[in-house]
Specification:
alpha+beta; 5 helices; 6 strands; about 20% strand; DNA-binding
Length: about 190
DNA sequence: CGACTTTGACCGGCGC
DNA sequence: GCGCCGGTCAAAGTCG
């Protein structure tokens, strides 16, 4: 299991953000990562995006605020009209990331349990569950139908455990530059990969 | 051999 | 009531 890529909306730290398996993805591209409005999974248009800087997003996530930077009960929620799953204590976070890869490894271990073609989209949607025992977090991954270079990831729920990478990081010596999360992340990464 | 992925079937909610 | 659609299940296949 590699601890690469992407923000995690539940408990992963900022040092998870901004690095990719794919060397073609650099940090600049992660500035294209948008928080999507809640309920975006029914395929939003870009006007419904609520853009949040990755830094803010991750900061919110890391403080444990449920749902991160999302607006939890935003209006214009198409999906929740169908299924009012998101009740108290049930958060959903979606974001859109420019990536060649569909699998956004966020440090958690996911088990794929389904794949569906989506109406009005040429790309299938993949369904994953957190494979940690007792953790019922799910995520959906699909390509943006309008720009296939983007991947839309929707997390459903909050992990009741830490990311294996967070656990690992807590055992690490102090970062090279605590003010630079990229350095910090890279430092962690290079050690982890050995 | 265990863990994981694939994929068709099934189920429930919603709109007409 | 019926059909469509999204989400989940589970058996079979694959991989390390």
């Amino acid at each position: 299991m590699d601890c690469l890529q992407n923000p995690n909306p539940s408990s992963a730290g900022p040092y998870h953000f901004g690095e990719s398996i794919d060397p073609s993805i650099d940090f600049d591209e992660f500035s294209d990562c948008f928080m999507l409005d809640y309920g975006v999974d029914d395929h939003q248009d870009s006007s419904s995006l609520s853009t949040v800087s990755p830094e803010k997003f991750m900061a919110d996530c890391f403080t444990g605020s449920s749902g991160g930077a999302t607006s939890r009960n935003s209006n214009n929620n198409i999906n929740e009209g169908r299924r009012n799953k998101t009740e108290m204590g049930h958060s959903r976070v979606a974001f859109r990331t420019k990536s060649e890869l569909e699998v956004m490894d966020d440090g958690f271990k996911w088990r794929k349990y389904g794949k569906k073609s989506v109406k009005n989209s040429p790309y299938p949607r993949n369904y994953y569950k957190c494979s940690s025992g007792g953790c019922n977090v799910k995520k959906r991954v699909e390509r943006d139908r309008e720009d296939s270079s983007y991947v839309i990831t929707t997390y459903d729920g909050v992990h009741n455990h830490e990311s294996p990478c967070v656990v690992y990081y807590n055992q690490m010596p102090p970062p090279v530059d605590p003010n630079n999360i990229w350095t910090l992340r890279a430092s962690s990464q290079s050690s982890a990969s050995s």
